[in-house]
Design a protein that fits this description.
Length: 301
Amino acid sequence: MLWAGSIPSHGSVRRPAARGRYRRKVLAVEVGTIWRQRSVMGMLVRRDLAVKYQSSMLGYLWSLIDPLAQALIYWFVFGVLYGRKGEADAMGHASYPLFIVSGIFAWMWMSAGINESAHALSSQSKLITTMRVHRQIFPISKVLARSVEFLVGIPVVLVFALLFGGYFGWHLLAIPLGMLIQMVLLIGVSLIMSPLNVLFRDVERMTRLIVRILMYSAPVIYPLARVTGTPGHESTLPGWFQFLYQCNPLVGIMELQHGAWIAPMFPSAQLVIMSATGSLIVFMLGWWVFNRTESAVLKEL
């Protein structure tokens, strides 16, 4: 196993620039090794999906029923009881059901990915200590398994787009772009949460709290215009808060998922770049945390 922190000195301390190049090279080597072990990862993904639904009568339909049920609840509370005044400018001719469904399916991938990857190491201790593969594969496989469920939900969003005035054009390319950025972000988060959950059991409780906070800190069930405002409807929130809010990588990801079907909501290039940059930072941080804690995790397992 290559370690990002194990830098040979050769009798002298490396310069910061050289150290940075070394770590990038180590990361590239490890990613390449994991890619070569993708057959193992595929086996873990198939096993995860099979085990999750093997004793269920509805099987994979649960991956659709759960988000649709949540979408129905949020639509009733925020779309019917509280109305959607001031959101028409952001959504154009599309309606709130399409907005909520396109956001919920992406969010369910995020939520399930975080929750399940936190247990990716502790729940597979026997495999981890016996299989000779990069151990990053185990949390990454959890993220990939949940991405399959997201893909299954795309036809459902397509139906809602047909029923509620969705846009069909080049904006649909936002779906794979949003998936790629979300994949990078989720892998980074999983590489942080999975080893820390082995070393510190309080992480399990903290994970549930983090998921709740993330749910409402991104435009999943409300449009971004509620935070940033629209022409003619200026936001009452201060500018510094709006900027910090948009630094959350999830904001750009959710806007890509909404904007794929609702043309006026397609995010700006600046927001997409901020989201991609933030996701990449989390990914690199996660890789570093996993490598630094791996030996301690193996002792605990």
